[in-house]
Design a protein that fits this description.
12% strand, five-stranded mixed sheet, four-stranded mixed sheet, 674 residues
């Protein structure tokens, strides 16, 4: 490795994002006692800069400002400079993002905040060009030096604003859970649909998988064709677009336009984990081959590019390679003609190597506009002939991609994102019955259990270089509980359910506030933050509180714990106003509302063939069903005293009442559909 002119404290970190900045001339430090103590002892302002490894504009600002010696001199002289990986420390990101949104009305990354030595923010923004950045630093520094009392007053007000915005986006009044809320929510939501290109109107277009998961379920429950068709249109357009990697599989983070063509090319584990679940569930409703293709190719991508030797999944792939955004994923016409040969004309029609697919600098983004069936018919090919050609094209281009310089890999492993991947893989196993999907989920769950959860049941947030670190946040516990419960529901292995129960008890002890009736994002013993936040907004990832509430409802049935149901119900009652006001921002809460307005049904299967019957039942789309199965007698409340030697019995239960047991899948499905 070449000698570096500068090396700062980040060299000792494991986060790829922090290591990217370890040779900046800025004297970056990680968040911690050392930096915070220095700021206090030297009475220096903190300069807190937050980003993540796959963030394009973070790279731009680094190159323009943080690698510049003149800028670094100003930063080093006047501030204690702290770099934070938002994926490692989402708790810190929540606080300073709230500050910047209050200050400027917008947020994003890179996130740059200036704070008093005690961490209270006084100024902030996102990306700044070099000259603007210098001006801002000097202006804030001068103001602080000349107006310490005014600055202190301002910091106090801003902190109060942060506490209000992060702790009280919730109604202080309980509202009754009203079944009529759902039709009102759906009516309001439809006005935002983009009925031509799928998704919601405008650009950029984020996928927001949980929105479409809720709408898929609502379309089925209310037999609403408009909603169901919008879900179909959206899933088709996303899988046809440049947003989806047509050669390597997997989805980029979002589309910069309104036709899903030009992605922001980074690939995030959390997006792909949730999309596995969405496309698998959509296939259960409507077995479209496109959905199965999206699932199988995305899983291939995850195995090939994101899976560690220890069976943990890495976090992200960068948008850039060789310093150019999207270079790894785009093609020139000349390259494609050479690689595809005689089939180029057909390939060109299929993937739109034309004005539609053209991007910039003679580069094309591969995208589709037709189903395989329609394309084959229009080009006088059989479906088998076309599919054979597509396989050859993909193999050829994948081989070529292996020769390219790859985008940067963020190889830290996050508990919450891995747990989401387990849940996604389990949904795929249920839909398609592929044992490999369950094996991947089980291996990943075993990795989490052995490497990222202590013997005492403490979940750690991040893992790299054989080291688990950072005490887990609510999102880690919530998603791991969800994943382990799902694993129990497909395997009948009681150890996973018991683990979920252990983690739930710890979550209530560490995060729950019985006065506010919600869970804090960070554990109660954490002392390095100016405030503890409560996360309720369902964004690209569902909020940790909504996931936790849905877990509690599920576990209340599996363990006969009405107290768990009561916590979930109290949380939902406080959220109904938010759901009604802004449904797309609370779609996982809206799923909980559906759970409460029509009580979940429990399917209890016990006997020698329980797991076989379970697999056959779970092929079907049954979002309101809780499964509990065992091949042997069990003391679990739903299974107790139900084992009969020589028989496999299926009980369909609801609200503590079970129908007489049946012995066939057909009879069980008939009862479930009645």
């Amino acid at each position: 490795m070449e000698n570096q002119q500068y090396t700062n404290e980040l060299i000792h970190e494991t986060s790829p994002y922090l290591l990217q900045h370890a040779h900046n001339p800025v004297n970056w430090q990680p968040w911690g006692d050392k930096a915070l103590s220095q700021a206090k002892s030297e009475n220096k302002l903190l300069l807190i800069s937050i980003g993540y490894s796959a963030c394009h504009w973070c790279h731009v600002m680094e190159h323009e400002s943080f690698e510049d010696e003149t800028v670094a001199q100003i930063m080093n002289d006047q501030f204690v400079c702290i770099k934070i990986d938002r994926e490692e420390r989402p708790d810190i990101d929540h606080i300073y993002m709230s500050a910047v949104q209050l200050l400027s009305g917008r947020g994003g990354w890179p996130l740059n905040c200036i704070a008093l030595p005690d961490g209270r923010p006084i100024w902030g923004g996102t990306y700044f060009p070099k000259e603007n950045w210098i001006q801002a630093l000097e202006a804030v520094s001068k103001f602080y030096a000349e107006n310490p009392e005014k600055t202190e007053e301002y910091a106090t007000k801003l902190r109060e604003g942060i506490e209000q915005s992060t702790l009280i986006p919730i109604s202080q009044e309980n509202s009754a859970i009203d079944p009529l809320l759902l039709p009102n929510i759906l009516g309001k939501w439809q006005s935002y649909f983009d009925t031509k290109n799928g998704g919601t109107k405008g650009a950029p277009k984020f996928m927001l998988p949980n929105n479409w998961q809720f709408l898929l379920r609502a379309g089925m429950q209310f037999q609403d064709k408009t909603i169901s068709n919008q879900v179909k249109l959206t899933l088709q357009k996303m899988a046809f677009g440049g947003l989806y990697d047509q050669i390597g599989g997997g989805f980029a983070r979002y589309s910069t336009d309104d036709i899903w063509k030009v992605p922001h090319f980074e690939k995030m584990l959390y997006d792909n984990a949730q999309l596995l679940r969405l496309y698998a569930e959509a296939w259960q409703v409507d077995p479209n081959p496109l959905y199965e293709q999206a699932v199988s190719e995305t899983i291939d991508f995850l195995k090939r590019e994101m899976l560690s030797p220890e069976n943990g999944f890495y976090s992200a792939l960068d948008a850039d390679s060789e310093g150019i955004e999207g270079k790894f994923y785009t093609w020139t016409k000349t390259e494609l003609q050479k690689l595809i040969g005689d089939d180029f004309e057909l390939f060109s029609d299929y993937y739109n190597i034309n004005s539609l697919g053209y991007w910039e600098h003679n580069q094309y983004i591969l995208m589709r506009t037709e189903s395989n069936e329609t394309f084959a018919e229009n080009h006088q090919l059989t479906l088998n002939e076309l599919q054979s050609k597509i396989r050859l094209w993909k193999r050829e281009l994948l081989t070529e991609l292996e020769k390219r310089i790859r985008p940067g890999l963020d190889d830290k492993i996050l508990a919450s994102w891995n747990a989401m991947t387990i849940s996604g893989l389990i949904s795929c196993y249920k839909a398609f019955g592929e044992q490999e999907y369950l094996n991947l989920a089980s291996a990943n769950a075993t990795f989490l259990k052995e490497k990222m959860i202590s013997a005492e049941g403490e979940v750690f947030h991040s893992y790299k270089n054989s080291q688990a670190k950072i005490s887990g946040f609510l999102e880690d516990y919530a998603f791991v509980i969800e994943a382990f419960t799902a694993l129990f529901e497909v395997t009948g292995e009681i150890s996973w359910l018991n683990f979920s129960e252990q983690l739930t008890k710890r979550s209530i002890n560490e995060f729950y506030d019985p006065e506010k009736l919600f869970f804090y994002f960070s554990p109660k013993n954490q002392s390095d933050l100016i405030t503890r936040t409560v996360e309720v907004y369902d964004n690209v990832i569902p909020s940790s509180n909504s996931v936790m509430a849905r877990n509690l409802l599920r576990l209340s049935y599996l363990f006969d714990r009405p107290d768990y149901k009561k916590i979930a119900e109290d949380m939902l009652e406080r959220m109904t106003g938010n759901i009604t006001e802004y449904p797309s921002g609370y779609s996982n809460w809206a799923q909980l509302l559906m759970d409460f307005t029509r009580s979940p049904r429990e399917v209890v299967i016990i006997g020698e063939k329980a797991i076989v019957h379970l697999k056959n039942l779970q092929k079907h789309y049954l979002p309101d069903v809780i499964f509990c199965a065992s091949t042997t007698a069990s003391d679990l409340s739903l299974l107790k005293d139900r084992y009969v030697s020589g028989k496999t019995l299926i009980y369909i239960c609801q609200d503590n009442t079970c129908q007489l047991p049946v012995e066939t899948i057909e009879e069980a499905l008939r009862l479930l559909s009645s």
